[in-house]
Each structure stands twice: as C-alpha cells, then as structure tokens.
Amino acid sequence: MLTHLDSQGRASMVDVTDKAVTQREAVAEALVRMQPQTLALIVSGGHPKGDVFAVARIAGIQAAKKTFELIPLCHPLLLTSIKVELQALGEDAVRIEARCKLAGQTGVEMEALTAASVAALTIYDMCKAVDRGMTIEGVRVLEKSGGRSGHYRVGEDE
Asked: Catalytic center at which residues (predicted)?
C-alpha cells in the first residue's frame, strides 16, 4: 500500500523501490481570468514586460523540474518531456495546459500541476500592475497514465 506515513505514523516519502518502471504521463490545466484589455495587451505582444506567454511557458517548465524542491515528500524525477501550452480563451481568460512525461516508478501529476500553477502565477506577476483583479482557477489534473492505478481522464471516472 502506498502511504506518506511510516510505521510510527510520521510523514515520509513513499518507497517506490519495488514498483515497476513504466511510461507515465500527466496533463494538468489552470485558467487565469482577467480584464479583456489585459488579455488584449498580452495577445498583441504590446506588454511592457515582454512576451507574457513565452515567460510563463519557461517558468512552468522550470517549475516542473523543481517540483521535488517545492512539494514535501515528492520524489526527484528525471522528466523526459515537459510541455506548457498557453492559449487565449474568449476575451478574458488564458488556459494553460502542462504535460509531463517520464519512464519511472512514480507518477508525474504533481509536476504537471506545478507547471500549470507556476505558469499561471507568472502571468499574474507580469500583469498585476495593469489588472489586480485577475484570478487563477481550475487547477486540476486532466489526465494521467502509467503505473498501478492505470489511466484516468476527467469525466471518465466521475
């Protein structure tokens, strides 16, 4: 059984020594809501701090690689692929999708969630001077595959 508690009930990292190495992938998303003029500024490329999507993409990738340093009890993982995609939704939102992959003994959900979250926070940071009312919403795992628990996709198991 996997648990973050040891035999004395103390928090500990899960021992994955005996788990099989499998191809694992996770996809997470986040949504940043903002004023229409803020999104127009980002999309036009006219933001005074530069290309918001490019900076957020890099921040998300870097964050995924450092998840084990940010989240207690996460395993340090050698990710083989990290993709962070950003797209304008309507006139007042940005959707972020982060996809992480590896061949390993534990899943990559936390890495995908961290990538999406940090990309969203980066957008907030870069745009807060022009829009303090932005919100970050809907941070969640959309899909995961590999490992003992099998495949999961939002909407299929709910």
From this structure: 125
